[in-house]
Amino acid sequence: MNYALIINAAVSLIMGVALVLVWRRDRTQAFTRYMGWANLAQLLVPAGYWLTAQSSPAAALLGMGALPVVAAGYTTLLAAGTMSLAHRPVSKKFAGLFLLALVAVNTSALGLGGMRLGQATAATINTLLGVVCTYWVWNTGATRYSSEKLVGPLLVLLGLNQFIYVLYQDDGAALQATLGALLRMALGLVLLYAALDRGALATRKLQHRFERLTDRSHQGILIFQTEHIVYANAACMDIYGASDMDGMNTAVIARSIPKAERAMVGQLLQRIQSGLQDDFSYEALRHRQDGGPMWLRFHFFCTEWDGLPAVQVLISDDTERYQANQALVHQALHDDLTGLPNRAALLKSLRGRCKPNGPGARFVLVLMNIDRFKLFNEAHGHAMGDEVLKALGHALRGALDTGVEVMRLAGDEYALVSAPHGDGDSGETAVSIVTTVRQLLAKPLRVNEGEIFLDASLGIALYPNSARDADSLLRAANAAMHMAKRTPGTSHRLAEKAFERGASNVLEQEQALRAGIERAEFHLVFQPKVSAESGQLTSFEALARWDRPGVGPVSPVEFIAAAERTGLIGALGTALLKQACQQIARWQLQYNTCVPVAVNVSPLQLLDPRFPQLVAHILDSCGVDAQWLTLEITESSAVQNMEQTVLQVEQLRAMGVQVAMDDFGTGFSSLNMLRTLRLHTVKIDRGLIEPLPSSDAIAVVRAICQLADALHLHVVAEGVETTEQARTARDAGCGELQGYLYSRPLLPHDAGPWLGPLTEQRPTLA
Ligand code: C2E
Ligand code: CA
Ligand code: CA
Hints:
The longest helix is centred in the first third of the chain and has 48 residues, at 92-139. Helices cover 56% and strands 17% of the residues. By secondary structure, the protein is α/β, with parallel strands linked by helices. The N and C termini lie far apart (159 Å). Bound molecules: ligand C2E and calcium ion (CA) (2 copies).
């Protein structure tokens, strides 16, 4: 009998300890804790009986007092375990009240009916508890494991087992102890199995959750541990083009990182894994296995993998956002029509190249403007104009070195920027660019199945020689381009520093010009025009000069353009006109004779409706007869404001002032215009005289002369530098010749003697 009791106690002890240990391992499984302690509490029951059997009344009383409490405690623990198994939360308050109630019931039963009734009561309560447990676990679907369903019936059997002692007293003790041990063992095993099942379920749940979180995440997740990839989710494999974990190795990742970055990434992984750094984020361009670009955002941080430190990398594929961004940037920096970089891109590039602290690498900026494009557009329509701009952009791109950036700034204006060159010669680079452009424009441009010849004016600025900051460099190239515009045909000019050096912005230019006009810093030089037949002086052209104090001579092309830009051309033009008339008066006084003097008039001066009155007033105030004054107006200004020009020319003519068409052949030569404007003289532009005596050039000059002849116009050939040019120009029909062959522009006291008798030095034609 003793053995049965000992085995029973041992089973309770083992099962109790096992269950409590399970709980200590996994505290989410509270039922193991309660059931474990119930088993251990059960051990106290034999001790209670032993006390009651003692001869000492105090010990017996203690036993009698302890037994109902121990029984109540056991039942309460079983109840709590049952509830937690059935997922019914056990509150402390409920457990306390339940315990007290049980103690009261057990004590009353023991007190009223003695030991037997006490045992019967406890057995009944425990059996009922088993029934309730069976009901809960079986009916409510509280658990999905069939093993757990055995808990209720086993508790019922354990409760019923207690009746053996009630019925047979000590005779049944061995049987009850043996059956109890077996049932308790079965119950313990079922509970342990349930705990295992529940643990496995929780693990599976966690794993499932992890899979849902990582495998379905669009963000790539990569775990590195001591330079090995231990985990990569589907998104990550997708990013690196791997089909499974075998394809996901360090080599694949390393290959995707540009060489320059590899060492940095390696160090970063080490620092994070060793805890020297918490986390780190960066963005970078990578390439897919098919070569496609992808913009990735990486976030590295320290994590734990299999209990050891590891580095987790979150990888976001930001390619779409990046590409959208790039598209926006591209749009902002490119011209829609030609797809070439635009003005904003040019400024960005120039600002990047012009270093504020000391010069960066040298480079060449060429601004290029198509000649007479506005008129071409008007004649052929804007759609055709657009095609030309596109074709030219394309042709430039194809013709120039790949290092030269081709940009379209606006309308018919392009910019060409050479690659930076360390210490090479900028001049050579500029010459090479200009030569390429010239060669390109010498050939016809194919547009819409047709062929078009274009001329362009090129302004060249060298960094850092011409200017040291982006804006000044652009201005310098722009001014040079405007100078080039004055020369017909495709021509180029190198930016001059003189004006820009002293005056870098419009306001400064205005101040300098205004001061120059007030201080009478501008003066005129006079270039003779001679008769093509006799070589005798026929007239002078007055040309403005500005020797800017502290700066030096400034080209008239530059300061006239600046005066036009700043609105000072009216004042300057008036001052120059006055000077010319005063000089005529002086020569008349000195030599008692004169020749007509031609004064250049800016198109902007001509726009002023009171211009003829101004001329009349100046002539009058100087006491000069109108016949000695010729005004040279340019073809382009006449074309642009035809109606106004017709009126002005008419009035000037009525006053007796002659009007000459300057730079003829550079603009949109219109026969109609020559007919409408009642002019006196046509000056053939230097660009058409220069190629003489080539037969093509002769044909052009001859055609102009015949046309002029038909309209009763005098013809002056400008820029005559050689006797061949002079002879062919004369033979083609030019009546007057002007150019360095005869004389450079002269100061008044050098020009004066030309009014006297013929001198020997003057070249004569055979
Ligand atoms: P433009 O009216 O066509 O003046 C002729 C230019 O050709 C002058 O340049 C003259 O010096 C230059 N030239 C004359 N013969 C030869 C030659 O044989 N070979 C070469 N290579 N060049 C020759 P400049 O004096 O530099 O004047 C340039 C331009 O500035 C003028 O072109 C004119 O458009 C403008 N300009 C000059 N003075 C005035 C002025 O008082 N008022 C206005 N509005 N413009 C002026
Ligand atoms: Ca002129
Ligand atoms: Ca001219």
